[in-house]
Fold each of these.
Amino acid sequence: MMKHMSISSMNLDTVLNQASQQLQQNGISNARHVAQILLRNCLDLDREEVLRSPKQLVRSGSVAKFYRAVSRRCHHEPVSRIIGFREFWSLPFKVTSAVLDPRSDSETVVAAALDFSEHRKYESLRVLDLGTGTGCLVMAFLSERHNATAIATDISVEALSVARSNAVSLGLAQRCTFVSANWCAGISDRFDVVLANPPYIPTAVIPTLEADVYRYDPHVAIDGGVDGGACYQQLIPLLSKVLRRGARVFLEIGVEQSELVTNILRANMLSVIEIRKDLSGNARCIVAEAETDKKKG
Ligand SMILES: C[S@@+](CC[C@H](N)C(=O)[O-])C[C@H]1O[C@@H](n2cnc3c(N)ncnc32)[C@H](O)[C@@H]1O
């Protein structure tokens, strides 16, 4: 039997205008742009279709679905969580409530690791990604270095399942193994590249963050303890056991954490090679190597 699909009396332009207004009234910035993204996602339209046919009537079911999405954004749920994906390094990543919503600032970590391996494109590089979340850092790296293989860890099995599904949809699953671990405890391999974006927000700061982050990013992915450095304190001492000779470590850091993390690295016989800024000019990625490598030149 054919399903009856009722057409509402509303066209694309009307629903977009109403939704933009509602979003604006709820303090959502870029309201029109957000409404367009949600509409395209709910109606499965591309950008041109929305612009080309603003008077096109919309099915009642789609209007209802769209308004449910708008209402979620009015409660500050991030767009990526509503539509279920986020673009990172121009690749699509599935996002669920179990993972950090990837931030564009983290692309600084990927860029630094790619620069380091620029002259080693054809070697079989081994990569370790600690606290993989969606898998965005390691997948971006593997997408550019076709001879690299990786292990990605997370303490959250739900996050690992999201990362695995991203690896499958990006066609990278053959080159990445996912392991449930406390950072790299129990990993016996050694690696050329270690990536990590650990939780680094001081616990007391978390309730003061925007609702988009505070309510929706899992706290296991953002809580860095009293001074924000607790996870660096846990994972950096484990690194000497997993670094190959000549390996580099690429750690994302929060704003004004370079001194804190540099001190932890030094206390663990690692030297800082570079502190790389993100596009906003904030120190975002610390690159380090074993002191023994530095002495050998
Ligand atoms: C800031 S998120 C980073 C996620 C992803 N790498 C990214 O850059 O978007 C930190 C991740 O570390 C994981 N994590 C927290 N504590 C951990 C631990 N003790 N061992 C392994 N992973 C941990 C969290 O589950 C979360 O996925």
Amino acid sequence: MIELADEGVVLRTYPSGEADRVVVLWTRTSGKVRLLARGVRRPQSRMGGALEPLAHVRVDAVRSRGALFVTRHVAHLARFEHLRTDYDRILAGLSVIEAIDAIPVDDLVDNELYETLLRVLVTLDDPTYYPTLVAPAFFARLLVHDGVAPEVNECARCASPGPLVAFHAPSGGALCRDCRTGRVITPEALGLAQRMLGGDLAGVLREARPAGSGEITAVFTEALEEHLGRRLKSARTALEAGTTRTVP
Ligand SMILES: [Zn+2]
């Protein structure tokens, strides 16, 4: 008897026993579940490829011991072929699912956030969008979703209209000259943050590497880390890759 029939996105996997793998799947209606996939580390396994991180799949499973399910059937809902061939897109995708995985709620059922995640994956798979700011935009979206939207239009401390010259995650956003502390922020980066949070995200994502991208990536990564109370490893890797890369 099938006890779990749901769709989800693979967040991460880890080896178990000789040839098995445990798959952490964020499902649409059952929250985060752990699935034992038997034999998937054998080369002839047909299920293995469907259970890589970032895969969007439909699964049927039965309950095993405790909270673990045993996978009976897996089917791809989307393969994201373009996403999978580009290192920057993969890293952006991994940063996004790491953030989802870091939300400290195990039975997280949130259809709105789930739809947002699917839109992120579709965007990363679309060659007309650049991956540069996809993860930081998602981080900002997650902060908005949790009711702690970063303030980028006025001083987060004194509500002065500016000029805004710094960003300080613990204060909740950008700061004026009198309140300044934290990270210095350029007018270009502030303008970019205002576009991303103000309804022009699609326009921003069509630009390869708009001025202020590195700063905004750092700012929104730090703000989400502050909110979640933990470091985001993939986002940090992306940040370091971004600061050492020269764009033609
Ligand atoms: Zn101020």
